[in-house]
Design goal:
alpha+beta, 4-stranded antiparallel beta sheet, 9 strands
């Protein structure tokens, strides 16, 4: 089934109505800003409900047509930041790189060029629908520049597919050099046990980006980091220990322990308690014995009360 036909069936519209709706969709976003973890703000463009429904329908069709490389660990069912970090935990040397303004750098014209570059055959009509239904127009001008938004349900998948050719080339390049390569959204991680081999990678990555993505996506040089077992190594927020294990890191452990102490004394408010519950769940996901250690320190009753808090609180 063609994408247009599938959308007509799912949205209960005829072809003309779907095309008319697609033309207006890039302007139908609610825009707001949220603080970034370090500094500055991230612009979120959230699609209107009708656009979001169409994007979900579009996403189901795109998943059948467009490939994602196996080294892409973000936005994939069954994959996680933990599995991404595990790929690198037994290697001594580490390189981390980062794309600049990743989602917003992916434009509708780049999407169309990648169809040709990756030899994906879809009709001009289906191409038109994806260009308009999945891309946001910040200027709200008819015919204005359309980009992927942070906030649209279709953006993560499209971003992974756009990088397919890049991921494939980089993966093969690294495999020949005994380098492990993974990508988690805009975070690129390279690791190896061969000394000095990683220093040539940044230049090669920039060259591949220019060749594969026409310079549309670029590296944020400030976030390019070389490190080794002699120093702290972190991959997508997870610490790699020198014993080849994953850890949430000493600082996070102390923070969780302090919050658990305050919770046991009844000194935390609702928001802090729910935050602590999430932190404990995450910590135990990364370090499977973490909850047991906290249970031994603070008692099973305290841990059970914490994990049941949301249900108890909502019931009250």
């Amino acid at each position: 089934m063609h994408i247009c036909q599938a959308l007509c069936a799912e949205l209960k519209l005829d072809k003309t109505q779907v095309i008319d709706f697609a033309l207006e969709s890039p302007k139908m976003y609610k825009v707001y800003a949220i603080p970034k973890r370090t500094s500055g703000k991230r612009i979120i463009a959230h699609p209107a409900k009708r656009v979001k429904v169409a994007q979900h329908a579009l996403l189901r069709q795109m998943k059948v047509i467009f490939p994602i490389h196996h080294c892409a660990f973000a936005y994939q069912e069954g994959l996680s930041i933990k599995l991404n970090a595990q790929e690198h935990c037994h290697n001594q040397y580490l390189l981390k790189m980062d794309f600049q303004n990743f989602f917003n750098s992916i434009t509708a014209p780049l999407f169309v060029r990648m169809l040709d570059k990756l030899s994906i055959k879809i009709s001009p009509q289906d191409t038109f629908l994806i260009e308009h239904l999945a891309f946001w127009c910040p200027s709200k001008e008819t015919g204005g520049k359309r980009i992927l938004s942070v906030g649209a349900p279709s953006s993560p998948f499209i971003s992974n597919w756009i990088m397919y050719g890049f991921d494939k080339i980089v993966f093969e390049l690294c495999r020949k050099e005994n380098i492990v390569y993974t990508r988690y959204a805009d975070d690129l991680t390279f690791s190896t046990n061969k000394k000095n081999v990683l220093y040539k990678i940044p230049k090669q990555i920039k060259s591949i980006l220019r060749e594969q993505l026409d310079g549309g996506i670029v590296i944020n040089d400030v976030k390019t980091i070389f490190t080794s077992k002699k120093h702290n190594r972190h991959v997508t927020g997870i610490t790699l220990t020198n014993q080849g294990l994953l850890s949430i890191g000493r600082k996070r452990k102390r923070h969780i322990s302090l919050l658990l102490h305050k919770f046991s004394l009844g000194l935390l408010g609702t928001e802090d308690i729910l935050s602590l519950r999430g932190l404990l769940t995450f910590a135990n996901h990364i370090e499977s014995d973490f909850k047991a250690r906290m249970t031994k320190k603070y008692s099973s009753q305290v841990i059970q009360q914490l994990l049941a808090y949301d249900r108890v609180h909502n019931h009250e």
